[in-house]
């Protein structure tokens, strides 16, 4: 017999023996009671404890047909039906199909528990986005149609705006419900829904679940009171499972013991995709098109990578103790490269020098430029470069700091600027502008031409579908749509091949650049005129410090002088060096560059002639289009009341084989629109790992009529490296998870296990009653009344986990009622700043002092960020004049504060304490620290009364439909209190009579006087209806 599992036969024998002993004990007990001379010691009986058998849910017998065409999908669904588990799937392998089939199989009308209990099936879907819910609904509708379900389970979405009676009715009906975690956790804590009535939870995007999130809070509440319900978790981002033992940590948060790993290299997945190819080796429908970058694009790419490497090296030099192995050029192509570096520095952000922060901003700029190099046209790319240079020069002239971005001091930055200008504005000896086109454009035109030729040659076009072009963003999709409309085929002679020309598109981009340049010059002129006088008044102000850089950023450039009196000359030299960057290979044009290093007047005139010539060529076509549009608009005006039949008569059917559809990658809809469109040709204009997997699934399902796939990418470019790095990252992530799963320890759990924090209460609670403290024991229940709007933070979850009962209520005063005397208003740093700006914090403090003895302001910092308010490193880099740009808006309470001081958050806190000297302030470094502070505060206090907390600050004359306290919108209330005649004493009367501000401004003077009285009513009416000018 096992130490942990008992045999069934032995268990039955033991139960029979226990029952016999119980009968014998009862008989002996009756005999003892009948015999008064028997000793008390012999009258004692052995107590027997009975443990209730574990509830096993029994689903009704019914036939369920699932739509799972591939073998690996069938195995995953079978395994997940058998046990609760976390599924980690490779990107693009169709998690929504698996989830929909599981929901359909588990959504039975009812669930049988034991012999007497029968519950309606109620399944919650957590952490789902709106587009994901639409996709799941479509899949479930298809499954219900396949199974011919006359009464399918309802799939309902509940938002945070829904009313509690409607939510309760929805819970009673059962079915599948998608709900936000904040709403569900409040409903469970208030008792609106019993966790024992929930059949199970579906947790999507499990990689984002943290132990302090509301999703984890719901899982703990559910599993603490419901041992028979199921939990299914899903994730298709294995790279997000990072840290120490990520798999075990995530399983602990999800209260699960099993994990299923299904990467792309899984044997079953490979067999599912390659099964049909074994029969016919010629069915290879993927054609890779390796496009080479132009020589100028190669030079720009190499220069940008060198700048990034220099920035990373300089960042390491400034922060040697904070640098990690991730700060390497191998990870530059990671989409989250800069974000991860920034996140690793958040906790020490206030200690970083201004140079380090500037380097991080430069990394963001350089990575974006690398991406734009292979996606946008040459003119737009040069416009971006010029905008960056102009912004740095503007900052320098404005005196915000005495140095430009460090990467602009490198020689490689000159290479980037020069070649970017040459691609867009360069011209040959004959004066013909290059207007360099992206190499992919020509290949795309030739590819579409070949496809159309293949369709024309093949007589049987019934099996052909549309041509689908996939790209990464809406910007690229818009660009491709315009290119396909204007491209022109140029036939080659015997020695050269045909090619496609997109010069008209480039000329339009050049025209847009000239318009942008003119507007930019006007803005510069206006700014210089406005700042002229202010610069004169601040000439004697102490100059700011320079960015400290190593020789990496100043080699072969203008030396940085250490003498203060010549520092301005050095900066002027750097500006002139950026402005004087000339073209190469004929870039000097007719007389070189002008004063801003961009275009001479002769060059501008030549470009205008080029634009006019192109406009004349297309003038006739545009006039015809305008005439057609004018006729259409006139017809629309004349026939605005046409019938539906007339409208349908104007439509024309287009064959699917004649359609060219441009679509943006979307992981939610990729699989669905492939099946709906059934394209015969798929062109991947840019690589995308998830969509490649979607195509593999589509090809495996559509084995009779697969599509031809064309995969375009720039060889030896950042685009190729990004794609290869993404494949490498996913493979390495799955390898780590597989190794961890192999060494994962067995998990055994009993009903006595507690997932809450193991905090010893005797450290904060004692039985001494000295000093007026209340008598408490370690086993006394602690509770805190929490405002329902606070469930967006992690503090209520942590309070529950340390053993404090959380009672959610819609309270008017404060956020947390710790005791009848202590009221806490919690503010994160962004909330604190916005509250000071609007003046709402002063009103909140006034309300707390009116009803509580110990009003408390809790200032809570993020655990991953610095525990500091003072930006130490930036204060000395800002000129004094920058403080004058503070916002002029203020409230009556802070109107006497100098605008220069108002920017400082510490000064605002001092002003608050000056207005409320008895206000208590708690400084907390994280929500964990706040939970511990709350536990210490409650050690010698009485428990709060829920009814009293609800009554305080509530006007009982204002009644709501559900009977609860009214919920107010603070911003409109703050707005109307600024109107003369409306104040904090009478705005309740306005709220009762007026629904919104629009109705308020339409009131007559009689209405105002009836609501506010004669004097206040006339003031408010005259203020609103005052005529100006």
UniProtKB/TrEMBL annotation:
PANTHER family: DNA REPAIR ENDONUCLEASE XPF. GO terms for cellular component: nucleotide-excision repair factor 1 complex. It comes from the Eukaryota. GO terms for molecular function: damaged DNA binding; single-stranded DNA binding; single-stranded DNA endodeoxyribonuclease activity. Belongs to the XPF family. This is Rad16. Keywords: DNA damage, DNA repair, DNA-binding, Endonuclease, Hydrolase, Nuclease, Nucleus. Residues 15-25 have a biased composition (Basic and acidic residues). Residues 15-44, 610-635 are annotated as: Disordered. One of its GO terms (biological process) is resolution of meiotic recombination intermediates. InterPro entries: ERCC4_domain, Restrct_endonuc-II-like, RuvA_2-like, XPF, XPF_nuclease. It is found in: Nucleus. Residues 783-863 form the ERCC4 domain. Residues 614-635 have a biased composition (Acidic residues).
């Amino acid at each position: 017999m096992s130490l942990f599992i008992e045999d069934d036969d032995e268990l039955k024998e033991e139960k029979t023996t226990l029952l016999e002993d119980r009968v014998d004990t009862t008989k002996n007990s009756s005999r003892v009671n009948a015999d008064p001379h028997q000793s008390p010691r012999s009258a004692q009986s052995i107590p027997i404890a009975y443990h209730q058998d574990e509830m096993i849910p029994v689903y009704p017998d019914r036939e369920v047909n699932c739509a799972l065409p591939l073998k690996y999908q069938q195995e995953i669904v079978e395994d997940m039906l058998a046990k609760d588990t976390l599924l980690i799937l490779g990107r693009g392998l169709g998690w929504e199909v698996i989830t929909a089939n599981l929901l359909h199989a588990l959504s039975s009308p009812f669930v049988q528990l034991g012999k007497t209990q029968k519950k309606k099936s109620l399944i919650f879907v957590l952490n789902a986005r709106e587009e994901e819910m639409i996709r799941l609904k479509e899949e479930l509708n298809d499954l219900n149609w396949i199974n011919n379900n006359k009464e399918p389970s309802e799939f309902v979405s509940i938002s945070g705006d829904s009313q509690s009676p409607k939510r309760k009715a929805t819970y009673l009906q059962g079915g599948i419900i998608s709900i936000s975690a904040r709403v569900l956790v409040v409903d469970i804590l208030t008792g609106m829904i019993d966790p024992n009535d929930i059949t199970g939870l579906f947790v999507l995007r499990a990689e984002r679940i943290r132990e302090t999130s509301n999703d984890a809070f719901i899982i703990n509440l559910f599993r603490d009171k419901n041992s028979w319900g199921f939990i299914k978790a899903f994730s298709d981002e294995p790279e997000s499972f990072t840290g120490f033992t990520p798999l075990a940590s995530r399983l602990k948060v999800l209260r699960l013991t099993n994990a299923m790993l299904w990467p792309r290299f899984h044997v079953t997945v490979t067999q599912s995709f390659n099964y049909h190819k074994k029969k016919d080796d010629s069915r290879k429908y993927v054609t890779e098109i390796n496009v080479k970058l132009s020589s100028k694009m190669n030079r720009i790419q190499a220069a940008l990578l060198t700048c990034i490497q220099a920035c990373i090296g300089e960042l390491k030099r400034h922060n040697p103790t904070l640098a990690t192995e991730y700060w390497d050029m191998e990870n530059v192509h990671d989409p989250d490269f800069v974000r991860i570096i920034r996140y690793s520095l958040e906790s020490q952000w206030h200690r970083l020098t201004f140079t380090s922060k500037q380097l991080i901003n430069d990394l963001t700029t350089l990575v974006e430029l690398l991406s734009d190099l292979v996606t946008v046209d040459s003119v737009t790319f040069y416009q971006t470069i010029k905008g960056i240079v102009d912004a740095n020069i503007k900052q320098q002239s404005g005196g915000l700091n005495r140095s430009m971005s460090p990467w602009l001091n490198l020689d490689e930055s000159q290479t980037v600027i020069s070649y970017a200008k040459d691609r867009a504005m360069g011209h040959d000896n004959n004066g013909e502008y290059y207007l360099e086109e992206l190499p992919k454009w020509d290949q795309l035109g030739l590819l579409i031409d070949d496809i159309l030729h293949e369709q024309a040659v093949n007589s049987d076009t019934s099996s052909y579908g549309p041509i689908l072009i996939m790209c990464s963003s809406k910007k690229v999709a818009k660009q491709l749509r315009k290119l396909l409309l204007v491209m022109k085929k140029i036939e080659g002679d015997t020695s050269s091949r045909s090619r496609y020309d997109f010069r008209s598109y480039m000329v339009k981009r050049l025209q847009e650049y000239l318009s942008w340049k003119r507007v930019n010059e006007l803005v510069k002129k206006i700014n210089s005129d406005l700042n002229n006088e202010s610069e004169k008044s601040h000439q004697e102000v102490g100059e700011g410090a320079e960015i400290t850089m190593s020789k990496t950023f100043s080699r072969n450039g203008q030396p940085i002088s250490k003498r203060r009196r010549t520092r301005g000359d050095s900066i002027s030299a750097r500006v002139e060096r950026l402005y004087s960057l000339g073209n190469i290979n004929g870039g000097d044009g007719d007389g070189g560059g002008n004063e801003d290093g961009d275009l001479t007047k002769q060059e501008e005139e030549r470009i205008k002639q080029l634009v006019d010539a192109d406009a004349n060529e297309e003038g006739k076509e545009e006039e015809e289009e305008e005439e057609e549009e004018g006729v259409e608009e006139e017809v629309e005006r004349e026939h605005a009341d046409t019938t539906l039949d007339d409208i349908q008569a104007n439509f024309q059917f287009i064959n699917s084989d004649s359609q060219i559809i441009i679509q943006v990658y979307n992981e939610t809809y990729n699989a669905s629109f492939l099946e709906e469109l059934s394209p015969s040709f798929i062109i991947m204009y840019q690589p995308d790992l998830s969509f490649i997997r979607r195509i593999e699934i589509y090809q495996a399902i559509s084995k009779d009529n697969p599509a031809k796939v064309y995969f375009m990418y720039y060889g030896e470019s950042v685009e190729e490296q990004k794609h290869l790095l993404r494949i490498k990252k996913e493979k390495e992530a799955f390898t780590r998870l597989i190794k961890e799963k192999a060494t994962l320890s067995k998990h055994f759990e009993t009903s006595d296990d507690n997932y809450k924090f193991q905090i010893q209460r005797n450290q904060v609670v004692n039985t001494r009653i000295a000093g007026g403290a209340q008598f408490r024991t370690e086993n006394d229940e602690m509770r805190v009344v929490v405002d329902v709007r606070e469930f967006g933070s992690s503090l209520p979850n942590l309070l529950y986990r340390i053993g404090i009962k959380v009672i959610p209520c819609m309270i008017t005063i404060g956020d947390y009622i710790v005791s009848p005397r202590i009221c806490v208003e919690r503010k994160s740093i962004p909330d604190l700043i916005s509250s000071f700006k609007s003046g709402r914090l002063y009103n909140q403090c006034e309300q707390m002092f009116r009803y509580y003895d110990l009003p408390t302001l809790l200032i809570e910092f993020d655990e991953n960020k610095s525990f500091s308010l003072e930006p130490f490193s930036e204060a000395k880099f800002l000129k004094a004049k920058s403080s004058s740009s503070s916002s002029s808006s203020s409230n009556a309470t802070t109107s006497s504060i100098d605008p220069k001081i108002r920017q400082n958050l510490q000064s605002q806190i001092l002003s608050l304490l000056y207005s409320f000297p008895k206000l208590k302030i708690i400084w907390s470094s994280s929500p964990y620290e706040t939970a511990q502070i709350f536990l210490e505060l409650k050690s010698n206090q009485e428990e709060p009364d829920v009814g009293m907390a609800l009554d305080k600050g509530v006007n009982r004359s204002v009644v709501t439909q559900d009977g609860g306290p009214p919920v107010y919108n603070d911003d409109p209330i703050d707005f109307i209190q600024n109107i003369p005649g409306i104040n904090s004493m009478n705005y309740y009367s306005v709220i009762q009579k007026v629904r919104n501000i629009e109705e308020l401004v339409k009131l007559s003077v009689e209405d105002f006087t009836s609501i506010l009285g004669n004097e206040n009513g006339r003031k408010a009416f005259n203020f609103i209806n005052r005529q100006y000018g």
